[in-house]
Amino acid sequence: MATLSYNKLGLTGKILIGMGLGILFGLLLRNMLPDSPFVKDYITNGFLHVIGTIFISSLKMLVVPLVFISLVCGTCSLSEPSKLGRLGGKTLAFYLFTTLLALVVAVFAAVIVHPGDATLAAEKMNYVAKEAPGFAQVIIDMMPTNPVQAMSEGNMLQIIIFAVIFGFAIAHIGERGKRVAQLFDDLNEVVMRVVTLVMQLAPYGVFALMAKLALTLGLETFGSVVKYFFLVLALLLFHNFVTYSLLLKVFSGLNPFIFIRKMRDVQLFAFSTSSSNATLPITMETTEHRLGVRNNIASFTLPLGATINMDGTAIMQGVATVFIAQVFGIELSITDYAAVVVTATLASIGTAGVPGVGLIMLAMVLNQVGLPVEGIALIIGVDRLLDMTRTAVNVTGDCVASVIVAKSEGEFNEAVFNNTEAGKVAHSFNAQVHISENQSA
Predict the structure, then answer these.
(1) Residue 133 near residue 360 (C-beta atoms within 8 A)
(2) What is the pLDDT along the chain (441 residues), one digit of tens a residue?
(3) What number of other Cβ atoms are within 10 A of residue 184's Cβ?
């Protein structure tokens, strides 16, 4: 009976159960068997690590084929260069605007709340920042010299550019192009079906990830930076639920509550995986089938957003910069605050695709205003949970941009958006049921 009830649950319910049980399992083991070599070697770094890594790998496995195939399909239908340029301009402008807004609010809130305590400067701090590439080099590196290598390395910007060029060429070779485009449409359907199959693993993957987190994350790390942690967390939640809702209502007139309700699965995936790229297959599936955004828009805005849209990271950088300045007793001028906002906004594009991008961007900002990079060591301990939350914020921003741009371009199905059952997947081990756009309309 319990099994039947569990199978009737939606994906959100199953993920929440997996998340809750994982945290409970981890905490129980942590308290019942503290410092146990068996737990550390065979459960934390063994069973849980294997299950969690397989889950993340299964999602990442889909990212490159999904982005390339979907973007080719979308670009094929954008045969006019002016429309492609307009789409890119709108998307980039929205991402830069929300990043700028997030930074301004974060810096202002940090100045008012004053989370930094000068006594923390006496703590031993050691952090070596990786060097970020120059902006000119980033622009050069965007053009792929070897598309196959770009795909094998998961270089999203290079994949996006090659897919756009490839799709644009298909749209301009007549009848032969139509045959190739149909092939990519069929491949897109296959990839999306694989996404629904992988989503069945979500509750188990989330269980393993959260259990491992509960076993490895010590509460003692929060002691010295508790004010910083809760300020960043509050700002992330505000940006996610208030700022994005207002932007959605103002620029599209759509109901934010429907949007938030349909975003639950994506946000839970993002929170659990801490990776916008790993969440991308779920983000695209939800945006197209649940939010009503056409593929030719979603296939462009979402991969680009997963690469350069970092509102959550921007909030962390704004608060962290002010926090570190307060810890070291360094007064920042209005000019310094302006430099923080501008540098972090540009860095969100300039360091796209670089491993450890959040801390690299923060190191760039600190160097720009003359603050000690070693101060990053203070916040590394609590950054794991904040990273999970800001990833959820980032993917929400990607979806908001997709909906707003799609509606402005007339590539949006409002009937699908307003239908709470549209695109909903009934997960069980035997079937997946998609409600099509025709039914919802």
Answers:
(1) no
(2) 455 465 666 777 888 888 889 889 988 988 888 878 888 888 888 889 999 889 888 888 888 888 888 888 877 776 566 677 788 889 989 998 999 999 999 999 999 998 877 666 555 554 454 555 666 776 787 788 999 998 988 777 788 889 888 988 888 888 888 899 899 889 988 888 888 888 888 889 889 988 888 887 665 556 668 889 899 999 999 999 999 999 999 999 999 999 999 999 899 888 888 888 888 889 999 999 999 999 889 988 998 888 788 898 889 989 999 998 888 888 888 888 888 888 877 776 655 555 556 777 788 788 878 888 878 877 877 777 888 898 899 999 999 999 999 999 889 999 999 988 776 653 333 333 343 444 444
(3) 21
Residue 198's CATH number: 1.10.3860.10
Within a domain: residue 441?
no
Q: Which domain holds residue 381?
A: 2-426
- Number of domains the chain contains: 1
In the structure encoding, which two tokens stand for residue 59, read together?
């999602």
Any domain includes 366? yes
Residue 421 lies in a domain: yes
Would residue 8 count as lying in a domain? Answer: yes
Q: What whole-number distance in Å separates Cα of residue 29 and Cα of residue 43?
A: 10
- List the structure tokens of 409: 């371009």
Give the end-to-end CA distance of the chain in Å, rounded to a whole number.
Answer: 35
